[in-house]
Amino acid sequence: MNDGESRQENGTREGRFLDRQGSGDQASSGVPAAGLHEGVSYSPTGGPGMNHWQEARITEPGLDDRGDVFFAAVEMTRMPMILTDPNLPDNPIVFANRAFQDLTGYPQEEIVGRNCRFLQGAQTDREKVAELRDSVAAQRAVSVELLNYKRDGTPFWNAVYVAPVYEKEGRLLYFFASQLDVTRRRTSEQAFRQAQKMEAIGQLTAGLAHDFNNLLLVVSGNLDFLRARLADEGLRRYVDRASEAAERGARLTKQLLAFARKTRLEPRPVDLTSLVTDFADMLESTVGARVNLQINLRRKLPPVQVDPVHLEMALLNVVINARDAMPGGGTVTVSTSAVPSEDGKAPSSHVMLSVTDEGTGMPPYVLERATEPFFTTKGTGKGTGLGLAMVAGFIQQSMGRLEIDSAPGQGTSVRMILPLAEKSEIPRPAGPQAQEPPRDALREAAETVLIVEDSEDVLAVAREHLELLGYRVLTAGSADEALALLERPGMGRIDLLFSDILMPGSMNGIVLAERVRERRPDIAVLLTTGYNEDLVADTPRAPSMDVLGKPYRPNELADRVRSALNRGSSGGPDGAPPPRGETGPRHEG
Predict the structure, then answer these.
(1) pLDDT over 80 at 197, yes or no
(2) E-assigned strand segments in 150-297
């Protein structure tokens, strides 16, 4: 900028001061912000600034006289404030109030004389720093939020407002900067955004898993039909390989559904110490010879309310991650403990199962995404990225919480915190049951199953399975079509309604089942869903309603259909015996 441009800029600034605020001989003057910073994400005044100055002019530029009431106010305020001198090399800090020392943890002698960049660190946004630097170079006010670091290395989000201060003739004297620690707000916003992102991913994942389960059901079902008709052992090997791949796909969708918190759980009171003890051999074989497994279990812990099968799967996934984090070997520690109450006086309401390793640890950016599905730092083919995602979804669905502590070079600790069971009595394993007497294979007519399924391919597989088992099968593509079929004149007895839960149309499978039971109370009900979730939790339902998860195998379908029919035929609503004597097809479980 040449002298002419400088005089013109000074004249323009002079005009702004005279026109907007007045000059005054002994008083400071300034240019009001007038809402110019209304786009700032946070304002200490609760809204866009209108009256505070974005430029100031003073008549006494020195900092020696500090005896007036305004200086005392600056030292008393809890708002951190500094002045920098752009006329000195590197624009150093020449004044910092006591609140700034409280904010940063630095003493006065370590602040004055240094450029503000000493607060910056590895994660500070360089674009925001450049925006601040450009505004200072252009002598204009700016408001930014930066990730800064305190003297002890603690990061904090700093909302910074910077504005120029001129002398009476228009020469730039200082830059004034006020600060505000907005870490709590930024953390809350980040947690909210993360929760929204994970919820959206969960919904997408659940929808994909539902459709994928339908496809897997068609693939595995037709492979079963093909295997039964192949005499060539060489060809059957190919079918077996394809079936194994379908099984792996089914396990993958179960992990996806666990992440999406749509797994059908069967929680019951569980003794964590006993569960880990019984599972120790599996964990020992999983970690291998290079890793030392250490188990520290606290005795006499109250039981937790959890699905034990899914908890074992979650524990196994965490231990596998711990093993993989120590390629050179180390120690994995599995422990149980009671979680103290917040005040330390009330009885504990949770129990903790933790897994700690001595591995490489995770940097903050990895830790932040550790529970996202398909996010993994393992090499190609060494992990799906669903382990911790499944664990997080399962723990949350179990009304618990998952905590992860990790740092590079310091290992990782994963804590699964689970709620206590309302009843402290742990159910004992059921003893051997007496075998039912053989059923009469001679029947007047086969039992009738009404299949309601909107997917034609899935419907075809289910129909063929049931027909091979000897059932008479009717089909409907929607709930409305099924009700119309029931109302058809001359429609005979239907023994079982086998319906998908999620279907297009005016009602889902749950509502359909209720409508059918209103018309024909003696009909047994078996529902199925690709979510593997009992979606009828909030819906009153008869005890004979059960849910079969997709993809199901022929023997699973056979067992569940037979069980549903047996429950349905055990008596009508008044306890009367079933109206027919036949018991349906015989088949192996």
Answers:
(1) no
(2) 155-167, 172-181, 268-270, 291-296
Model confidence over 216-251: pLDDT tens digits?
777 877 777 777 777 777 777 777 788 777 777 776
Is the bond leading into 504 cis (omega within 30 degrees of zero)?
A: no
Q: How much is the pLDDT for 27?
A: 56
**Confidence at residue 114, expressed as pLDDT on a 0 to 100 scale:** 93
Strand intervals (E) in 453-565:
472-476, 496-500, 524-529, 546-549
Q: Tell me whether residue 205 is exposed, middle or buried, using C-beta atoms within 10 angstroms of its C-beta: 0 to 12, 13 to 18, 19 or more.
A: buried
Q: DSSP string covering 128-182, please?
A: HHHHHHHHHHTT--EEEEEEEE-TTS-EEEEEEEEEEEEETTS-EEEEEEEEEE-
Residue 412 contacts residue 359 (beta carbons within 8 Å): yes
Q: What is the mean pLDDT of residues 307-332?
A: 86
The domain defined by 19-183 carries CATH number 1.10.8.60 = no
- In the predicted structure, residue 471 carries a pLDDT above the cut 60: yes
Nearest one of 58, 54, 79, 9 to 173, comparing CA atoms: 58
Tally the C-alpha atoms within 13 A of residue 463's C-alpha that lie toward its C-beta. Answer: 16
Pairing of strands 53-58, 81-84: unpaired
Q: Which is more confident, 512 or 50?
A: 512
Phi-psi region of 358 (alpha: psi -120 to 50; beta: other; left: phi over 0): alpha
Under 8 Å CB-to-CB from 68, ≥6 apart: which residues?
none
Query: What was the pLDDT predicted at 443?
Result: 37
Cα-based distances in Å from 366 to 155, 194, 369, 372, 374:
17, 14, 5, 10, 13
> What pTM value is reported for the model?
0.44
Indicate the helix (H) or strand (E) that contains 29: strand 29-32
Cα–Cα dist 570/182, whole Å: 65
CATH 3.40.50.2300 for domain 448-570: yes
Q: Does residue 401 contact residue 306 with C-beta atoms inside 8 Å?
A: no
- Residue matched to tokens 């866009």: 48
- Is the predicted pLDDT of residue 495 greater than 80, yes or no? yes
DSSP 434: P
Strands 304-306 and 268-270: antiparallel
Dihedral, 373, 378, 379, 380 alpha carbons, nearest 10? -20
CA-angle at 564, arms to 488 and 267, nearest 5°? 130
CA distance 389 to 395: 10
Right CATH for 268-419 from 3.30.565.10, 1.10.540.10, 3.55.30.10, 2.30.130.10: 3.30.565.10
pLDDT tens for each residue of 511-561: 898 888 888 888 889 998 876 444 444 444 444 467 887 788 888 888 889
Question: Which range among 38-47, 399-408, 547-556, 573-582 shows the weakest confidence by mean pLDDT?
Answer: 573-582
**Residue 422: φ, ψ to 5°:** -65, -35
> What's the DSSP call for residue 373?
T
Q: What is the pLDDT of residue 13?
A: 47
